[in-house]
Structure formats: C-alpha cells, structure tokens
C-alpha cells in the first residue's frame, strides 16, 4: 500500500505560507510545492477551506506532540500545574514559525478554526476557575507571559538574546511551581 500524500501536502502548504504568506497559498501552489497534481491534492482537500482547516489541525498536532514530550507522561495523568508548565516552557522557549502565527491569526475570523486553538490551550493550560491562592494567579501569569514571549519573538523580527531568553524562561517556569525558590 502506498503511503498517503496527505502529510506531505500539509508540510508543503506550510512551506508556501512560511515563504510567500497565506495569500499565496492556493491549491495550485500547495500541489506544486508538494510535487503532486492539483487533482491529487483535491483528493485529500477538496477546497482551500478544507486545506486551511487541515493545516490548523496539523500544526496543533505538532504542538501537542512537543507538549507531550515535555510533559513526559499522558496528559490525562498530569495535574493542571504540570500541563501548564509544559505549555509555558514550549511557548516561551520556542519561537513561533511564520505559519503558526499566520494560521493562529487567520483563525480569529473563523470560529471553527479558532475553536481548535482554544481547545489546545484549554487542554494544556486552562484558565483557572477561581483565583483564591497566589499560586493560581502565578499559574495564569506564567501562561500569559509565555504567550507574550511567543508573540514577541514571532513579530519582532529579532530574537531575544539567548541569556535573556533563558532567564525569562526560567522565571516564567518558576511561576508554575510555588514550592520553587524565587530568584
């Protein structure tokens, strides 16, 4: 049995977006980049909207794989604090790709696409139901700081210097663990 060209097409569509922007992403450009015919692409993705939706799922699956690796155990066995720690480390330590940022922004105008990102964030770093303890506020602050670093690096055009980034990641991560001594 021949392997599916679906993942190859998704990766190719992401490359087109990285290189040329989302407006340049068409069924034709994705097929050309993937080395398949437009008909072959349309077998998997009958429309551009289907392709966009699948790319979102593909990017989210990549995030979840990295988060699961950081967590080191199944998400179902983790506490909210442990999963939020993995989320904050991933977000703060890794720079968003142009495609990740583009597709996340694109999703804001389309509820079905936005729901995918919202569900990822709710699974891994849910907003606290109540803020009774300082540690609850710290956990939320860590998530917000991590999201801010991710966005800053994705939009600034200049990465943070490595020592500064490491110090920020360390400080953000310290917020997720109330027993950890503060620097």
TrEMBL record:
SUPFAM superfamilies per record: Homeodomain-like (SSF46689), Tetracyclin repressor-like, C-terminal domain (SSF48498)
Pfam families, A to Z: TetR_C_28, TetR_N
GO MF annotation list: DNA-binding transcription factor activity; transcription cis-regulatory region binding
Entry protein name: DNA-binding transcriptional regulator YbjK
Keyword list, A-Z: DNA-binding, Transcription, Transcription regulation
Keyword Ion transport: no
Signal peptide boundaries: none
InterPro entries reported in the protein's UniProt record: Homeodomain-like_sf, HTH-type_TetR-like_transc_reg, HTH_TetR, Tet_transcr_reg_TetR-rel_C_sf, TetR_CgmR_C
Every HTH tetR-type domain range: 3-63
PANTHER family per the UniProt record, alphabetical: HTH-TYPE TRANSCRIPTIONAL REGULATOR BETI, HTH-TYPE TRANSCRIPTIONAL REGULATOR RUTR
DNA-binding region: 26-45
Organism: Streptomyces harbinensis
């Amino acid at each position: 049995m021949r392997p599916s060209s679906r993942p190859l097409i998704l990766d190719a569509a992401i490359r087109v977006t990285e290189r040329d922007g989302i407006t340049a992403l068409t069924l034709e450009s994705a097929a050309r980049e993937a080395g398949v015919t437009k008909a072959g692409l349309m077998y998997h993705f009958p429309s551009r909207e289907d392709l966009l939706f699948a790319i979102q799922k593909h990017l989210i699956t990549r995030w979840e794989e990295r988060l699961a690796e950081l967590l080191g155990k199944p998400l179902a066995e983790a506490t909210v604090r442990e999963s939020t720690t993995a989320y904050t480390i991933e977000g703060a330590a890794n720079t968003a790709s142009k495609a990740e940022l583009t597709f996340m922004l694109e999703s804001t105008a389309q509820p079905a696409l936005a729901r995918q990102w919202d569900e990822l964030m709710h699974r891994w770093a849910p907003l606290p139901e109540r803020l009774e303890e300082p540690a609850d506020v710290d956990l939320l602050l860590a998530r917000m700081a991590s999201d801010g670093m991710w966005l800053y690096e994705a939009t600034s055009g200049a990465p943070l210097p490595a020592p500064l980034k490491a110090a920020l990641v360390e400080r953000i991560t310290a917020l997720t663990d109330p027993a950890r001594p503060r620097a």
